[in-house]
Amino acid sequence: MIYIILSFDDTYYLNKKCANILDKYNLRGTFYYDVARISNFMVEDIKWISERHEVGSHGMTHRNLTKLTFEELMYECGKSKESLEKLIGKPVNSFAYPYGFFNEKVRKVVMDCGYLNARTFMLGNTDIDDDTFALRVTLGATSYGYRKIPFFVKSVDIYELLYNPWLIRRWDKLVDKILKKLLSESKEKGKKKILHIVFHADFIELKNEWDKLEEVLSIFSSSTNTKNLTVSEYAKILRRN
Q: How far apart are CA 240 and CA 236, in angstroms?
């Protein structure tokens, strides 16, 4: 079994377009908002998204939390949770560390604020996580380059990248390769794996890669031996095991 987890980071008006495309393929994602950037015209969109998908916090102002005082941390983590819950009328259980930066102090504040899980930006992971407050991801689909090659080597055979270096710039094809590799390994070894991808709607728009998003989601929708989960649904499974 491969768990397919789809995260969408940052406050951007095109998040609703991403959610619509997810709906088209009967998939769900987790949308992380840095609350201070939520404008009045985004409110109804976020409410609409929360009815179909998970809404999580990305802090108030998307700052590096490891450099903040305790009071500032409480504002970023606690106030953002309170504000989002008031907006959507339901619990906000997941937090995404801005830039992926965190330490034990940040981790404790996030836990004390009542979140049930937290996601990092540690790339290259396809193994089931063992820490619900340090969830790793496989790749950032729209925000990577050649400097991230070591992370991709963990997920795709090195020879695959040597013979097909263009995969580094074609994240849609790279995702397809990773999924096929994971499905093969899962079938052979009987182990569960994850494919956790982070998207940014503004990057998709900037590079006009909506067709790539559709292609990847179409692949996920038609795949067998996979299960699409929100971040909190995945974390709940981890807590049970």
A: 6
